[in-house]
């Protein structure tokens, strides 16, 4: 099956998660993605273990963290701080469609590899710079990390139990969302280029993304003038929409409208709740959650989780178990959709989580495993016209690996 971005070349000069996440998505969509890595250490996340893939094999050992965001890419290990390395990057950029980078603001300008310099060589080039705080403003010079941005961007203030410490999410979700926003911005610029013939520079900041992704909670604050409180596993605007303990575990109940609540009330043996002015509408339930939620909780404790889930499903009341990640990959729907994959790298099986996109019922995902450091350097350099002697000289000088 042809993929939407076949024929597009991406120069991925990013590292860690937000930029590589965007680069991996471009690869899944069919683009050729050349990952530029430091010739000695590579992407920082190669060493962010344990856990490790192939821990006993020093040549193959790589952190699971790296494997989550780098499939489908070629690895060119080149020292961008060297004059010869910079020349190689310029030559690649001259023939590329997209360049991704997450250097500090101004970090590439000293090498002559900033977007303005590269666009002078290739007016059709689309650049995407991912930083913590954007290309301008009082914080532009600062480094940004997901955890810190979750705190500064308000996400932690609404996570955690009301009487506990504010909590981050269990995944670097701001990085992931930033990678998605970066992808959207670049795809928009690609579409525009078809009309204008000119590239664009896309500026994506983790803090901007986190603020934008506050979604309803941001508007709750802007409309009311009051910062939202932490509700733990409950919803600020919908009741009952939270986790409940059962006799042998926990489930999440997500009652999204009044008709679902009416069916819930009947299931719980309390049909009068659906006509009680205190509970009949969602607004009333939100106002009276302190009374209603303990009543629901006491009933859920009388039976087992799976028994309740079967009853809820039979009545069309949305609910689900709180799965461990191991249980997620054992879930029948997750299995059916093929979300757990394995890609071959030589004799090694590399676990992967599939791209969630499908086109015409076919999954969009690269079949190429995340690369070894510098595994494609020789092939890419030869394609650029360098001879074996040229490549060996660059290797001796430490410019490439």
TrEMBL record:
Record has rRNA-binding as a keyword: no
UniProt-listed InterPro entries: CoA-transferase_III_domain, CoA-Trfase_fam_III, CoA-Trfase_III_dom3_sf, CoA-Trfase_III_dom_1_sf
Keywords for the protein's UniProt record, in alphabetical order: Transferase
One Pfam family here: CoA_transf_3
Keyword Cytoplasm: no
Domain of life of the organism encoding this protein: Bacteria
Name of the protein: CoA transferase
Source species of the chain: Halomonas sulfidivorans
